[in-house]
Amino acid sequence: MQQLQPITPTIVKVVPPPTPQVSVVDILVGGLGLTGVIVVASIILGLAVGALLIWFQRWRANRHGEGGESDATRLDLSSPIR
Questions:
Q1: Residue 1: is its pLDDT beyond 70?
Q2: Domains contained in the chain, number
């Protein structure tokens, strides 16, 4: 009779390719990019709100008339001393 030889399995482990390492420079560039986007967005939003406020003030002054009565008191600080 023939004896069966023991079967030894072969294990193959598939190794994924190495991932690129993240350096300090990559983190700083990413952070500066995000900060730049936030700064540009805040400048645009500030200009838009400022323009809206100026437009609203001029609209309100035109609606009430330039010489119309107002609740505000003028200090007239720019006039010369008499």
A1: no
A2: 1
